[in-house]
Amino acid sequence: MDVANRRISDQLHLMGQILEILDENPFKVRAYTRAAELIGRLATPVADISLEELESIEGIGTAIAQKVREMVEDGTFRELEEVKGRVPPGLVEMLALEGVGPKTVRVLWKKLHVETIEDLEKAARGHRIRALKGFGEKKEQGFLKAIANARRRQSDMRMTRQEADMVIGEVRQAMSEGTYEVAGSYRRGRSTIGDIDIVTVESPSHLNRRLRSIADEMIDEGERKSSFWCRGSRVDVRYTPSSTYGSMLLYLTGAKAFNIRLREIALGKGWRLNEYGIRDLARGTVHEFSREEDIFAFLGMDIIPPELREDWGEIDAALSHRLPALIEGSHVRGDLHVHSSWSDGSMDLEALARAGEACGYSYLLCTDHSSSLGVARGLDESALKRQSHEIEMVNRATSCQILHGVEVDILADGTTGLPSRVLKDLDVVVGSVHSAFTQETDLMTRRVLSAIGNEHVDIIGHPTGRLLGQREAYAIDMQRVIESAAETGTALECNASPYRMDIDDVHIREAVNHGGFISIGTDAHGPGDLAWMNYGVRLCRRGWAGPGNVINTLNMHDLLEWAS
DNA sequence: GCCGTTTTCGGCCCGACTGTTTTCAGTCG
């Protein structure tokens, strides 16, 4: 996301948290929190958006739009500074502790002058908290445990999809095949996962016992839901009979905003929607749903794929039967970013081709690094020639054809790491930034724009350069990149490596809106990595991409035609 | 603070679990 948008989103979120501690109107709090989310998913830098356009976003009104303008100009807004002055700064950090919410923080602050996590720890150890009305020994112990947990694991850290798969693999051992489904952000295909949500038809009495055996620690345990820590991540399990499985899965899959919106729509029709079904408020009758599809039908909507359930316009589209047809895994004919042992990959070309065959692909684009990148054993002109001969040999014996490409460096000045006479002979060229990450926005943007303008560069690899949990995206104006790529017909990569997931859903959506092309590449360096394609497809679906937006759906002939 | 083919004022999703209670408040998703 845009750096400035991130900052503004954080400030709106902070405003909401402080208002909560100050015991303000909870709906005002919700308005700020919602606005923070909306700004956070904007692809365009807010500085480029007019006041009128801001207000036209559902959930942002005149007041918050004005404050956003203020932040663009002054870096903050008057009311935020004012409320900040009324609350010790450490209180907001306390909110991040498990089981500690605004009411608790407020009472501890007012009655015991607790202003920081350290103060809280001292008060709990000194048994001063149990004296408060509504608090007891268990609360004290709970606070100490929450503090210890927060110090041990950075609980606000989101997982990569691969890490999520590891946690799910662990939980799977306690569950019976065919009785459950992973819901939540995992099912929505998000690039990173906060916690693992599971819906199951198994009985809580049996499963809770087995879950205890794989849990690091149980958080809570009941007849309808249980929560626990597993491999440092939170897992929530919801129990349901199969007769209401659809309602439960819908509830546990939807983003919060999606669920709220759907329930509001049901209310408008005189129905109360929850995870057990739909109650007709006038008649008192309850409809149960074993399948999600039937709920959408009941509400008069098209079926919304899990990846779209974000309250990002999909609900109106489903009501008016205008949902797009999304790309599917079966549409993908090949992977457009893989490395071989010619550079820093572990598979030789034949192993690559066999791996491609196993995926059912008709082609793989071999994109080893160009020689300008020393660390990755890059290829120069003569190495590429030799590689070309070997590819010809391998292609005679396999159904999956290796296309000869390269991942050429976009150098600091915007030129490519290999000259045009080399690039022009390759099938498809991916251009990527691998150095000088700290350039300021305009320079970095123009650098990438010049690669987009290069007639030999077909795809921009991992366009924002982020490494999840390790390195932020470099400063780049993605709006300009997306517009320029759409104009020239250059594809932007959706790098499906779980460490990158770059570009992410918001940018894919923006590119799709501009009629641009997306290219999915796993950036595979080893045999198992080709399976990451699924992550990329899901991300593209989140970006509302159809098969026509993604060049991996082209057959080999058309792809080569497109690239030429 | 946001929003409106019932409303420019009066609403704003809904339920599970825990701890401290004896009917509920707080937190969480």
Structure explained in plain terms:
With 564 residues, this protein is an alpha/beta fold. It is 43% helix and 14% strand. The protein has a 7-stranded parallel beta sheet. Strand 5 and strand 6 form a beta hairpin. Helix 1 (3-21) packs antiparallel against helix 2. The chain is globular and about 80 Å long. It starts with a helix and ends with a helix. The structure holds one DNA strand of 29 nucleotides.
Compute the separation of the termini in Å: 32 Å
What is the tally of helical segments? 24
CATH class of the largest domain: Alpha Beta
Helical percentage = 40-55%
Strand order of the largest sheet: 11-12-13-14-15-16-17
Q: What's the total count of β strands?
A: 17
Beta-strand share of residues: 5-15%
How is this fold's topology laid out?
Elements: H1 3-21, H2 26-40, H3 51-56, H4 62-74, H5 78-84, H6 90-94, H7 102-112, H8 117-125, H9 137-152, E1 159-160, H10 161-172, E2 180-182, H11 184-187, E3 192-193, E4 196-200, H12 204-214, E5 217-221, E6 225-230, E7 233-239, H13 245-253, H14 256-268, E8 271-274, E9 277-280, E10 286-287, H15 292-298, H16 314-319, E11 334-338, H17 349-358, E12 363-369, H18 381-397, E13 401-409, H19 420-423, E14 428-432, H20 441-453, E15 459-460, H21 478-488, E16 491-495, H22 505-513, E17 518-521, H23 533-542, H24 556-563
Parallel strand pairs: 4-7, 11-12, 12-13, 13-14, 14-15, 15-16, 16-17
Antiparallel strand pairs: 1-3, 2-4, 5-6, 6-7, 8-9, 9-10
Helix pairs in contact: 1-2, 8-9, 13-15, 20-21, 22-23
The protein binds one DNA strand of 29 nucleotides through helix 2, helix 4, helix 7, helix 9 and strand 5.
